[in-house]
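Appendix C: a fully annotated inverse folding record. The material below is reproduced so that readers can follow the format used throughout the book. The structure is listed first as tokens, followed by the designed sequence.
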């Protein structure tokens, strides 16, 4: 049985991430200097942010075919699900998530690296697949769609 070509998968994911930036060469140069590359979330996806320690289990609840890239920061105890641009409205009531606005920069390592405490839990594969918003909301469990009372905001 042939082993998968992980280097090819990482290259495809890196290329996709870099192309999400208006200056893909700058992303690659940043990675070559072993730094996180800021990639703005307004061209292809939004970032839905959650606490890593308490929301990590949601990853296993989302079927692979509905799961896109998920970045974790082990130091800051955060994770970011890459979701479609249209997901902001659908996820607005999910109290466990904060959907970052378009133009917000996610500081990303290359797909095959762990860098500055950040690692891809689910790596970009170059296909552009993003996490399905409904599946993400459902994975966060009962009450995922409930809004906080107005006085709690």
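Designed amino acids, in order:
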């Amino acid at each position: 049985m042939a082993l998968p070509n992980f280097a090819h998968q990482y290259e495809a994911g890196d290329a996709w991430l870099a192309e999400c930036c208006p200056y893909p060469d700058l992303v690659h140069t940043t990675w070559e200097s072993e730094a996180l590359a800021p990639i703005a979330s307004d061209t292809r996806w939004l970032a839905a942010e959650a606490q890593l320690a308490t929301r990590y289990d949601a990853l296993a609840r989302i079927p692979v075919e509905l799961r896109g890239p998920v970045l974790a920061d082990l130091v800051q105890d955060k994770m970011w699900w890459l979701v479609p641009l249209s997901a902001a409205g659908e996820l607005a009531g999910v109290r466990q998530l904060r959907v970052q606005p378009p133009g917000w920069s996610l500081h990303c390592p290359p797909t095959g690296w762990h860098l500055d405490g950040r690692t891809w839990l689910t790596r970009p594969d170059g296909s552009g697949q993003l996490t399905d918003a409904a599946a993400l909301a459902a994975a966060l469990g009962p009450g995922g769609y409930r809004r906080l009372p107005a006085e709690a905001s």
